[in-house]
Amino acid sequence: MIIDIREQAFDPLNEIRQVVATQPSLRGKYGANAIFIGTMRDFNEGDHVESMVLEHYPGMTEMELGRIVDECVAPTPVLEVLVIHRVGQILPGDDIVLVSVWSAHRAAAFSACRNIMEALKTHAPFWKKERLSHGERWVSGNTPGDDCTPE
Questions:
Q1: pLDDT at 150
Q2: pTM for the full model?
Q3: Is pLDDT at 144 greater than 60 in this prediction?
Q4: What class has domain 2-21+29-139?
Q5: CA angle 69, 35, 68 (to 5 degrees)
Q6: Which of 50, 56, 81, 93 has the fewest CB atoms within 10 Å, i.e. the most exposed one?
Q7: What is the β-pairing status of strands 47-55 and 88-90?
């Protein structure tokens, strides 16, 4: 499992290539790589969004993301997981999050990738402040989705 929280922009496909090139345990073992790339849009709740700041608590956030990934992949035969999440100032069109899952078969890769992303949206400790043309606001919730966290 690779978890990386960073302020700088990243190239999702290059990050995936780097994992494949540097993880010899993946060579010849995976038949599927499911990928989710989340990008900032320029609108939310009917308003134009000029930028966003994502805040987090270093150390705690990485630990919580590790717990989320562990819970979400536990029921599936996954070989490797990469999660990259931006923090700091983000502009419309910037990639915010990458979830990439490698598995021998597509069903496990798709399932784990979706479960991780849904859990990140609802449980990851990030705080969003949007800058609008008429001021700023904290975002209190995320787009609803399915959640893999066990009850």
A1: 43
A2: 0.91
A3: no
A4: alpha beta
A5: 10
A6: 93
A7: antiparallel
